[in-house]
Each structure stands twice: as C-alpha cells, then as structure tokens.
Design a protein that fits this description.
The complex is a heterodimer of chains A (381) and B (214). With 381 residues, chain A is α/β, with parallel strands linked by helices. Chain A is built from 15 helices and eleven strands. Helices cover 44% and strands 18% of the residues of chain A. The chains are: A alpha/beta (381), B alpha/beta (214). At the A-B interface, strand 5, helix 8, helix 10 and helix 13 of A face helix 4 of B.
C-alpha cells in the first residue's frame, strides 16, 4: 500500500530502496558534479581546487533549487585523503591550473598531477602509479596508513533533504583512479602484468575489508559501490568476475549483516552485470541503468526480472534527452520510466551518469515535476 | 569454402600476439604475399572483431589484446609492404579536441581503422585547432576525426572546423565527429561531413567518406 503521508526526501528514498511504496517516486537526477559547479557562477577551479564553495555544498544548494530528493555521496573511503598530501601549482593561465600533489613515503615520493580547467571538472594529467612495481609499494604504504576515522562527519549537511552515503570503489574504480594512463593502461595491465595485478588485487581486497568495517561503523544510510570503471563499456565480464565481484560480494554481504543499504553505480553497458549482481551479491540498489546509446539496459525488462530484489534507479538519457531534448522529451521519457519500473515501488527516477554542465535547467525542473505529479502513488500510478 | 587465413583470424580474435607473429612469419616463408596476409587475413579478421564488439559479444579489453596481436603481425608485414610500394587504404588524423582529455573512444576508433588497413595519425588529447591544421598540411590525410566527451568541448569541434576553413584547407579533407554528447544534428550544424556513433560504425563511415571523395 502506498504511504499517503508526505515523507521527507530521506524517508521517501529509503522506503523505495527497501522495496516499499513511498508517497511518490523519489527523483534524484545525477547532478553530482558539473551542474552544481556551474550554478555557483564561479570558475570550476574555485570549487574543485579551492573549496570555494566545496562541491558538496554546491550540490546541496542545487538540491534545494530544483526541489529534488538529495543524494550525498561526497565521502569516499577509497579516496579518503589522510594523511593530507602536499600541493604545488605548476602552471596557471586563464584556461586551467595544473597542480602537483605528493606524499613522501619510506619507499620514495608518490605524486600525481591534476589539471583544473576553468569550466569543467578536474582531470588527471599524470597518475600516481607510473611504475607498477615501485609506485605501487608507495601507494600500499600510504593506503595502509589511512586511519579511516571520521568518515561520516559530513552527514549532518544533508539532514533529511536526502540520503547520506559513503562510497567504496570497485577494484577497477580504484585501479583506473590511481594508474598513470588511466583506463586504457589499467585494462592493458591485466594482460601485460597478470601476476602483479593479482598482487594489487589481493592488497585492495584487504583494504576493502578494513574500509567496509569503518564505513559500516559510521552507520550511513547506504554504502555506495562506486563502479563506473567496472562498466562493460570499458571492462569485460571476465575482469568483473575475477577482480570486481569479490569486492562487491564482500561489501554487500557485510552491509546486509549491518542492516545498511548497499547501492552500486555502474554506468554504460551494465545489463550483464545487473544479472550477475542479482544472482551472486547482496546489493540492494542498482543504477543508473543506462539505455542505448551508451548503455544496454531495458528498464521494463530489468524491472520484470530483477525488481523483486533490486530497487532500480534511472534511466532518463543524459545526452539525448536531458542535454539535447526539449522539456516535452524529458517529460515523455520520465513518464515512460515510471510506467516501466514504478509500479509497486522500489524505483527512483533518475538520469544516466552525470548530467552535463550545459543541461538546460528547465529539463531538470521538468524531470522533478513529473515525479511529483505523475509519480504519485496515491493516484494509482 | 576453405579459408586459408582462418587461423590468422582466430589468433587475432584470441589476441595471441606471439602465435600470430609466428604464423605470419610461417606464411611469409611459405611465399604467401604480405599483401594477402593483410587484406585476406588481418583486415577481415579485425572486421569480424568490429562486428562482435558491435553486437556486444566482445569487450574493450579483448579488442585491445586483438589490436596488440595485429600490431605484432603488422610489425613484420609493414617493411615488406613498404618495399612493395603498397599503400594504406586511407589516411586519417584523429584527436580529442582542446580542453578534453577523454581518449578511450578515440583510441578504439584508431584501433578499428588500423584494423581496416588505414594509416592513423593520432594527435592525442587536448588538441588545439591549429594542431589539426598543421597535421592536414603535413600528412595530407583523407579524413580528420574529432572526438569530444564533454558538452563544453563539443563546441571546440566547431571552432576547429572554422580554423581549418579559414586557412583554406576545408576542401582538402573530410571531417567526421564522435563522442557521447554529439549526434547527427550537431555534426550537420557545425559543418562536419559525418558523425559516427561508435568505433565499429566509424570504420564504415570513414570508408564511405574516402570512397565518395575519390
């Protein structure tokens, strides 16, 4: 039965995530990065480099502006920077700022260079792990020093405006993040240095064990498995099974034991992974379920096959519809998503990964409006 | 029909660069012309891989391994092909436009085009318009490919085409664009000649551009 009270966004989202029927379909477009930064009116490096304002506060302002249900996911156990790195500006011009960051370890300096463009999120120019043997020892030392304390200190910022999550990267997410050469080199490492990758994986699984305990002790609303780089647009089912699935199984099993929602984000091609997760993990929520082009998910099909276990979050197309479509296109696709997956609850209306910086505001407002009207459960929708 | 090059295609699909290199040498030792190994073995083999990728039966890591195997075979064949004066089926300059660091899509397009027997000049990422122009003047390609993944940088595609036009070089090349925020309509608006939705379809589109311009 639909909950006819008007719920707080937090309760609404959690009801849907627990496969219940809230007052209406929650609506959480993925505007985690570029849209809030743009709304500040400041150069992007102000937000990403100087925390002026911090990205999470820019996001919360956007949540209020659009009247959406919020999703605080700015705390990440894998990327938790402790001890803090030193920084130095290498180059600065009107288009970008390049920054070197480093930490000194007993094995030598671990460093990376990041580019902060004026109008886009930052981009790695040089990753931490350039030489797999030498630099990985430095990274291992650094990650072993992480205290993993105080992970949830930002929880109060979101309050009841939405849910509070702490993220842990999948193995591919971790490796693509730290590896010089990014995703391409990370993928080649599996075939070029298989034994070394096995060692890296073994280390990361130990880290995830420690990180999962710390995250669950912090009692977030959800633990988010950050799996963008595990997408089959980049990776393969074989790599997923061998390297990512053990991590996902562990996190989701521990989350289930702790009574905490476990939510996985894997964009791009993900249909086969949804099925693997359904059969072999304790994940509760899957997103963003991207449809073609870019993805391969049919929302109606996954609701029918996997809706008894998964809360589904998605899947209005980020480019075709949210960026390039009209308000009517957004309304039409949002209603189609609700028709496909909203019945019986367990659905959150959202978009694909990351609405682009130039997504028209009226399109985001339109998406939210559809959830608040067409998505009401007490209207029998 | 007995496919003389079935094993070449299979080793390519499996991405076994050592065995493919060995087989390539064996075929050459058996007096099979380098041009046939390329045009009847490797190129159709990569075409099969393109179809498998398009149908979702093959994934990027496997394609990268196959590309590595192709490279190891080409390292043996190319000196012979050059000696014989055999040219590639087309020349293309590729790059991700200025302000954009995304390269996976571009790299995959490059792999598939090389697999189709074309010469690819990869300018990398964050490529300013002037560098594309310089590449046109230096390499005289048939096609220039522009990649962008950000809504901000897709407008740099337009700027790049303008710089090429203003320099009087627009008639010398065909321009194809691609990337997640890009579509047919955008390609037409900015004056590109074609748009490719993915790496697999890029090969066909580039071939068409070269053939129609011949």
């Amino acid at each position: 039965m639909a909950d006819s009270r008007s719920l707080t966004p937090r309760d609404r989202i959690l009801t849907a995530m627990r496969l219940g029927i809230p007052d209406r379909v929650p609506v959480m477009p993925d505007i985690s990065n570029m849209v809030p930064a743009k709304l500040t009116g400041k150069p992007f490096w102000n937000i990403y480099l100087h925390n002026d304002p911090p990205l999470d506060e820019a996001y919360l302002a956007a949540v209020k502006r659009f009247g959406m249900d919020g999703w605080y996911i700015y705390d990440n156990a894998t990327m938790h920077e402790a001890p803090a790195w030193q920084t130095k500006i290498l180059e600065s011009n009107e288009e970008s700022i390049s920054v070197e960051r480093w930490v000194d370890t007993p094995f030598g300096r671990l460093d990376e260079i990041t580019c902060y463009p004026v109008g886009d999120p930052p981009w790695p120019l040089q990753g931490m792990v350039k030489n797999l043997q030498e630099d990985f020892e430095k990274l291992k030392w650094y990650m072993s020093q992480k205290p993993l304390e105080g992970l949830s200190h930002n929880r109060e910022k979101i309050g009841t405006l939405g849910i509070y999550g702490i993220a842990i990267e999948t193995f591919m997410g971790f490796w693509v993040w730290v590896r010089e050469g990014g995703a391409m080199q990370a993928i080649l490492d599996f075939s070029q240095q298989p034994e070394r990758m096995r060692q890296v994986h073994e280390f990361y699984c130990e880290f995830v064990d420690r990180a999962t305990s710390a995250v669950l002790d912090a009692r977030p609303d959800e633990v988010l498995i950050a799996g963008s780089s595990s997408s089959l647009s980049l990776s393969s089912p074989k790599i997923y099974r061998t390297f990512d699935l053990p991590v996902i199984k562990h996190i989701s099993a521990e989350a289930r034991r702790a009574g905490v929602i476990c939510h996985q984000h894997t964009c791009g091609r993900s249909r086969a992974l949804i099925e693997i997760n359904y059969n072999e993990t304790d994940v509760n929520v899957m997103e963003p379920l991207e449809r073609p082009p870019g993805g391969d998910v049919d929302l109606t099909e996954v609701k029918q096959k996997f809706g008894d276990k998964f809360c589904l979050k998605g899947n209005v197309n980020t480019f075709e519809t949210m960026l390039n479509g009209t308000v009517e296109d957004v309304r039409r696709e949002a209603m189609a998503c609700i028709d496909a997956a909203g019945k019986g609850g367990g659905f959150i209306l959202s978009t694909g990964d990351q609405c682009g910086r130039d997504t028209p505001e009226e399109n985001i407002f339109a998406l939210v409006e559809v959830a608040k009207t067409y998505g009401r459960y007490d209207k029998g929708s | 029909m007995n496919d003389e090059f079935r094993e070449v295609k299979e080793l390519l699909r499996l991405g076994d660069n050592q065995k493919l290199a060995h087989l390539t040498k064996q075929l050459l030792d058996s007096r099979v012309p380098a041009q046939r190994i390329l045009s009847e073995g490797l190129i159709p083999g990569m075409g099969i891989i393109g179809e498998l990728m398009k149908n979702g039966e093959m994934y990027l890591p496997d394609v990268l391994q196959s590309a590595g195997a192709m490279k190891s075979a080409l390292a043996i064949l190319n000196p012979l092909l050059q000696q014989q004066g055999i040219e590639s089926s087309g020349k293309i300059v590729l790059g991700t436009v200025k302000g954009d660091m995304h390269d996976i899509g571009k790299n995959l397009v490059g792999i598939m085009l090389q697999g189709a027997g074309m010469e690819v000049i990869d300018l990398g990422v964050n490529v300013p318009p002037e560098k594309y122009l310089e590449a046109i003047q230096t390499h005289k390609p048939h096609v220039v490919g522009l990649s962008a993944l950000l809504t901000t940088t897709m407008m740099t595609m337009k700027k790049t085409i303008e710089v090429i036009s203003n320099a009087g070089a627009r008639d010398q090349v065909k321009i194809i664009v691609g990337g997640a925020p890009v579509n047919d309509r955008f390609a037409a608006e900015i004056g590109a000649d074609a748009y490719a939705r993915d790496a697999a379809s890029a090969v066909g589109k580039v071939k068409e551009l070269i053939t129609n311009n011949a």
